Amino acid sequence: MPETLVGTSLSYYLIAFDANGNEREKNGKLISQIVLDVLSKSRQPEQPITDVFLMSHGWQGDVPAAIDQYDKWIRAMGKNRADIQKMQQLRPGFRPLIIGLHWPSKPWGDEDLNALSPNKTIVSFDTTDNSQEELINQYSQRISDTEAAKEALRTIFTAAEEYDVAPDTLPPEVYAACQVLIKEASLSSEGEDADGWSENESLNLDPDGVYQTTLAEESKDVSFGIGDDVKSAADAFLNIPRLLSFWKMKDRARKIGQTSGFNLLKSLQQVTDKTVGFHLMGHSFGCIFVSATVAGTQNSKLVRPVNSLVLIQGALSLWSFCSNVPHRNNVPGYFRSIITEGKVAGPIVTTQSKHDKAVKNAYPMAGTLGILGGQDIDFSVDTPSYPGVGGIGCYGIQGDGLEIINYPKGMLTLEESYDFKPGKIYNLESSKYIVVPPSFLDIFMGAHNAIDKPEVAHAVWSAAFGS
């Protein structure tokens, strides 16, 4: 049965994958099979499904968080009745089927598919909560499950117990251990990187730089530790492992998206008529997931192009779709095939917000910069200055070989209409709407998750109009 949303006409199915991309059963059933059956039956003339919407959450999403996010996003879409009425005009008999895709992206998160509350307790990063060996095993599973990685983690945890407070400089043994962890994390992905992911989303953390920034941010009362305030040597020393888990989750989004996500999308297309529209929307690392779902691997091909692709506060490279990534040797963006092979028939729409601290800070920090903050961002479309490493949620999609429109007015009000055209890319400066009141501001995340707004939903619906 689909998840129902009180107060709206919309509902959705939650399809969950495990860390290896295998679909998980709920109450002994595969939800994908239920969805396929619904779509197959809907080919009868009585009440056909006209459009399928697939959505992916991003980083820090376990099952309760995924349910909470999808409830909010889809409820926001359901409340935009004028947009639904327009879809009904454009698509007579409009009847959507919505799918929320879950992939485990929260280290030590709650993966109980029968979870009822988004507020369940998870395992803490606090080194006092578990024995050292348990923590080593937990961290190694998220970073690299090798003996070298485990020994490096053992060195870091031992040092964390020896220091009451963080020293002024990173101890040599901790620095060396961090270097080993970075190497092991990189090696664990190399065998699966035949198509050049690391060229686009590289890993080059500087342990000393991260540590010094950690100390500097502690004095500013800023949470650097991926959501945890720095209070001890343990917190400071563990930022490299935390950032590595961040990077690995980004890599997981790609792997599961281009295999399991792609296979699901293709299966859905195979049981539907060619008139059925397919619309994909991702948030944060979910933008990697849905882009990978559309792109697939080098030898895979969808039944037909999807009809729209919306990337909300995307935590993936701004160069992901271009013909030549700056500062690389003739390397195209990782998702370039989406453009060259016409895998999106309608518009590609992105959002940017200057209030999104996660994409501005954490994304480049876990990429090649290895520092917090990076350069200041100029949000004026008249004087763009784009870095080698940066997220779509800050800069939009950029680069050569693309038909890009930086929408003049940015994200529009509900009363205004977009003029999205097929085959074009639209970057929407959305700081006016993707924002949170100061009293609710998370210093590290900023407005990264503040996307359950009617104006954001209006843009998602409008992308479907433009297909």
Automatic annotation (TrEMBL):
Domain of life: Bacteria
Protein name: Uncharacterized protein
Source species of the chain: Desmonostoc muscorum LEGE 12446
Higher taxonomy: Bacteria, Bacillati, Cyanobacteriota, Cyanophyceae, Nostocales
